[in-house]
Design goal:
Structural class: alpha+beta
Distance between the termini: 43 Å
Strand content: 15-25%
Strand order of the largest sheet: 2-1-3-4
Helix content: 25-40%
Number of strands: 8
Order of helices and strands: EEHHEEHEEEEHHH
Largest sheet: 4 strands, antiparallel
Length: 220
């Protein structure tokens, strides 16, 4: 079984603010530490698009320059989103057991921790309506809880799912590290702010702060 953080991608052939890769519309991009610079650019573009709303007045007026205007929502909105989530697939059969649906985002990936140690249940959007439910010492994954003609379902040990979630979180962390380096090269005047915003959009801000604290702590 494989659990991967995926980002929903829309093709944007007219985008020219920085280099991006070619992707089919309405597909997914796996976020991890193996992405090319162009793929990282695509991910940053998409996350910025997800947050391209008019911020409240207290966040200041939208900049006039194209780059500043495109990044404005990402850099000023308090609650950021990144469309999609953690996908779970059986590599041996290519069977998908959890596929993020509409209204689900990577900013909510910690719902998996609720499944493991909290309420014992989480839903991951709709069309399909994937769910995860803890039943004793197992986690039941259902691709589409509302499918009329049946749905792929699997039960996995809690410890196996915990390992999968830990791995997917590490993939997000590796992507964020890549994105930070990418931002320094492609968005030097916005690099720190963009990296911090991406961390918030992926709900990795706490880990980022801990990493910075350890880096800045003087050696004993």
């Amino acid at each position: 079984m494989v659990m991967q953080p995926v980002l929903e991608i829309f093709a944007d052939d007219d985008f020219a603010l920085w280099p991006v890769g070619e992707h089919e519309p309405y597909g997914y991009l796996v976020l991890d530490g193996t992405l090319t610079p162009a793929e990282v650019g695509t991910a940053v573009m998409r996350i910025a698009e997800c947050n391209d709303f008019e911020p409240e007045e207290e966040h200041g007026p939208c900049p006039a320059d194209p780059l500043g205007a495109f990044l404005h929502g990402l850099l000023t909105m308090p609650d950021l989103i990144a469309a999609a989530g953690f996908r779970v697939t059986d590599d041996a059969t290519d069977t998908v057991f959890v596929e993020p649906g509409c209204c689900n985002g990577l900013e909510s990936w910690r719902d998996w921790l609720e499944v493991l140690d909290g309420t014992g249940y989480a839903g991951f959007g709709h069309d399909p309506s994937s769910t995860a439910e803890r039943v004793g010492d197992t986690i039941r994954l259902t691709l589409d809880a509302y499918a009329e003609d049946g749905s792929p379902v699997i039960e996995l040990p809690v410890d196996e799912v915990r390992t999968l979630v830990t791995g997917a979180q590490a993939d997000l962390r590796d992507f964020l590290d890549l994105a930070g380096t990418w931002a320094e090269q492609h968005l030097p005047t916005h690099a720190a702010a963009v990296t911090a915003a991406l961390a918030r959009a992926l709900d990795l801000d706490l880990e980022l702060e801990l990493d910075l604290e350890l880096t800045e702590r003087p050696a004993s």
